[in-house]
Amino acid sequence: MNNILNFFEKLGASARSSLSGLGSCARLFFLTIIYSSDSFKRFNLTIKEIYFTGVLSLVIIIVSAFFVGMVLGLQGYYTLEKYGSSEAIGVLVALALVRELGPVVTALLFAGRAGTAITAEIGLMKTTEQLSAMEMMAVSPVARIVAPRFWAGMISMPILATIFSMVGILGGYFIAVLIIGVDDGAFWSQMQANVDFHNDIVDGAIKSIVFGFTCTLIALYQGLVAPPTAEGVSRATTKTVVISSLSVLGLDFVLTSFMFV
Amino acid sequence: MDENLISINKLSFGYGKELLHKDINMQFNRGKVSAIMGGSGCGKTTILRLIGGQLKPNSGNVNVDGKVVHEQGREGLRNIRRKMGMLFQHGALFTDLSVYENVAFPMREHTDLPENVIKDLVLLKLNAVGLRGAHKKMPAELSGGMARRVALARAISLDPDIIMYDEPFAGLDPISMAVICDLIRSLNDALGATSIIVTHDVAETFSFADYIYFLADGGVAAEGSPKQLLASKLPFVKQFIHSEKDGPVPFHAEAPSYQSDLAL
Predict the structure, then answer these.
(1) CA B194, CA B181: separation in Å to the nearest integer?
(2) What is the ipTM, given to two decimal places?
(3) B220 in any annotated domain
(4) Which residues of chain B are under the pLDDT cut of 50?
(5) Cα nearest neighbour of A42 on chain B
(6) Is A9 a member of any domain?
(7) Number of domains in chain B
(8) For residue A158, what are the CA distances in angstroms to A112, A151, A174, B262?
(9) For A226-251, how does the pLDDT look when each residue is reduced to its tens digit (9 = 90+)?
């Protein structure tokens, strides 16, 4: 009996702590919005963060996208060939990338590269009392540190996802057209005819905005609540990757079921 | 004008259910250098955070220049903090900014001064702490003592009325310690500021402080000028000043009997 009670007690405590975390995260978001006007007045801070989170993520995004596109080209060709429709490879690669892989893989890479950097940086700033020092100088850390990083993530993520899809399509083109020899015209014209701007591209962009919001907010929150110790920062960094990845995959299912079904 | 710039009135504070401070009263006079001393973990730094409004008291209040700190809104707190400069234990310099940018940071945030004026002021402040020549360096290139001095230049960059020092001597070599001691006194007098130092370094503090508070057991155990405290017969003060390992502050942490722990 006691074991059952303990189980429910632990379950309740964990649900309560998750909910309270979610509440604090929402509070951070509203504070970020309130302080964003201060942050926009000095947009150069956001531009600097766009460089760190966006521009410096380009290499990993481009290389990954090219390989993902090439794998899609290979796998797609061998399957489509069985049904005599290998010309549809362009559509398959484009739709898979624009609707799903572009936003999702970019978000996972973004969480791993930029998200962890944000968490570790803010966690260390907290550990070395830089955030406290800022507060004592009557400068809000939310306005100076959090808001520029939040907007940098929100701006960078959709651009990175778009670049991912574009490079991925080029990867698919390289394999399907240049290596295997699928007809060049068919590759592009089928893609042009079957990829819809509103249903595919805009929905993919919405996904990447939602993922950008989720990953950036989680990274910022984990950095701010990290215990001020080496172990605390390392745990927070791990949490950023785990929670962001699971949230992205879960949200992707929800968004897909609303958008494409 | 009230003689006390800061007064702490019947203040109680605790992080959990247990109170760290119980009904504390303290006064910090204008233009004076006051020190808060006590053993590690007695809540010295917490007092600075309560003065700065980073923590709220459970009861009582901190009054800065006639305003109750914890009752202030966002703007009120901002105005109070603009009059304060704080030197953190390890400097808390912004590691992504150069020495120059660190000192310029409060000026850029709170004033619309043109760049040439900011440059002159930054070099002036750095000169006051003897580090004008290091203005291009990054914080990672500085020694502990130099970082502390740059942080001090940043703390005084807006000529604050109140300068708070959190363990300014911790981990410093004797030369850096003497330099910081000298700077605390000279900056306080030159700026006409009120300084509060949280420390447990007896020799240095007694050499230049005007008034000293000793914290122990959640309250003020003793207070007075260095001269009065040196003559004090209070066992706690004697133990602290003469670094005796046992006395009112026991050597052993609270524990069950030795025999029961060893199962004898």
Answers:
(1) 15
(2) 0.82
(3) yes
(4) none
(5) B109
(6) no
(7) 1
(8) 16, 12, 24, 64
(9) 999 999 999 999 999 999 999 999 99
Range of the domain at B68: 1-83+192-264
Query: Do the domain assignments include residue B240?
Result: yes
Q: How many domains does chain A have?
A: 1
Pairwise CB contact (< 8 Å): B81 & A132: no
Domain membership of residue B118 (yes or no) is: no
pLDDT computed for residue B29 by the predictor:
87
Higher pLDDT, A65 or B209: A65
The 10 Å Cβ neighbour count of residue B143 is 11
| Residue in chain A lying closest to B79 (CA) | A138
Q: Which two tokens stand for residue B130?
A: 């003897």
Q: Which residues of A touch B95 (CB under 8 A)?
A: 125, 128, 130
Cα of B1 to nearest chain A Cα, Å: 25
In chain A, which residues have their Cβ closer than 8 Å to the Cβ of B90?
128-129
**8 Å CB contact of B54 and A128:** no
CATH number, position B69: 3.40.50.300
Least confident of A53-62, A171-180, B4-13: B4-13
Tokens 């709220």, located at residue: B56
Domain that holds residue A92: 57-252
Beta partners for residue B254, in sequence order: none
Between A120 and A84, where is the model more confident? A120
Instruction: Check pLDDT > 60 for residue A72.
Output: yes
Residue in chain A lying closest to B163 (CA): A136
Task: Identify whether B61 is part of a domain.
Answer: yes
Contact criterion met (CB below 8 Å) for B155 and B81: no
CB–CB of B109 and A136 under 8 A? no
Does residue A136 form part of some domain? Answer: yes
**B219-224 sheet: strands from edge to edge:** B84-87, B162-166, B194-199, B33-38, B211-216, B219-224
* Domain-embedded: residue A33: no
Residue B88 forms contact with A (CB below 8 Å): yes
Asked whether residue A255 carries a pLDDT value surpassing 90, the answer given is: yes
Of B80, B9, B90, the residue nearest B47 (C-alpha)? B9
Task: Examine the pLDDT at A71 and tell me if it is beyond 90.
Answer: yes
Residue B157 DSSP code? T
State the maximum Cα–Cα separation within chain A, in Å, rounded to a whole number.
70
Dist CA B210 CA B227 (whole Å): 10
pLDDT value of residue A164: 96
Question: A138 and B105 in contact by Cβ < 8 A?
Answer: no
Asked whether residue A52 is domain-assigned, the answer is: no
A132 chain-B contacts, CB cut-off 8 A:
54, 88, 92
pLDDT for A42 equals: 84
Which tokens is A28 given? 């951070």
Residue of chain B whose Cα is closest to the Cα of A129: B92
Compare CB distances from B92 to A128, A138, A139 and report the shortest one's residue.
A128
Task: Report how far residue A29's alpha carbon sits from residue B34's, in angstroms, rounded to the nearest whole number.
Answer: 41
Rounded CA separation B173/A123 (Å): 29
Cβ separation B52–A136 shorter than 8 A: yes
